Amino acid sequence: MGLQLVQTAIRRGNAAIKAVFELDQRNNLFVTEELPSLAHLVNQGAVWSAGEATGVASVIAPPTTTAQISLYNDEDENGLSYLILRVYGIVTATPAGLSQFGISHCIHRAKPASIPARDIAVTSITNMKAGGRSQSTTYDGAARIDLALTVADDLWKPLGYSILNAVTGVGWQLDIWLDSMVIIPPGGLYSLAAVASTTTVNTRLGFTWAEVQL
Fold first, then answer.
1. How many domains does the chain have?
2. Greatest CA span in the chain, whole angstroms?
3. Burial classification of residue 84, based on how many CB atoms lie within 10 Å of its CB (0-12 exposed, 13-18 middle, 19 or more buried)
């Protein structure tokens, strides 16, 4: 049997809404979200996505000091942090016959010695909220996305699962949900690389992230 914890009024716009919060028999408090968990961040214009425009040859061994794509947070020390929500990969070329590819990632332990380049233009960074009559979706943040960056080898790890291609083809995709399990604070760097059974597997990699104050 649940126990009533508190009754209060919540202001939303000009309306006052009464709410009753209850504890269950184990003293757990359950809260039901009005909207899906990311809807508020997306509505605020805080969720962005970007990736490679052309396919790149995969590596055939665990990555070391060369990343395929890297996301750098160039905010000031007390600025926004980046929550990695998802990572994706799209196959643009495969060999004739059997092949396999997956994605490895590296969470770098230290700030890079020099600020990475901005190889992907801010105009190619997409807001996850479609533009409306009164909203600009042009990216004005501090993210820098570098391609083929030389990085510290901070122990690359497999990300999600891999795809096995039985025939020649394009369009195979990986979409890996991270749900903020990776956080890039100001000065932080995060890298991806595609690992495949042959270098003739070409892929385009990218990220979706939220920019928030922690």
1. 2
2. 66
3. buried
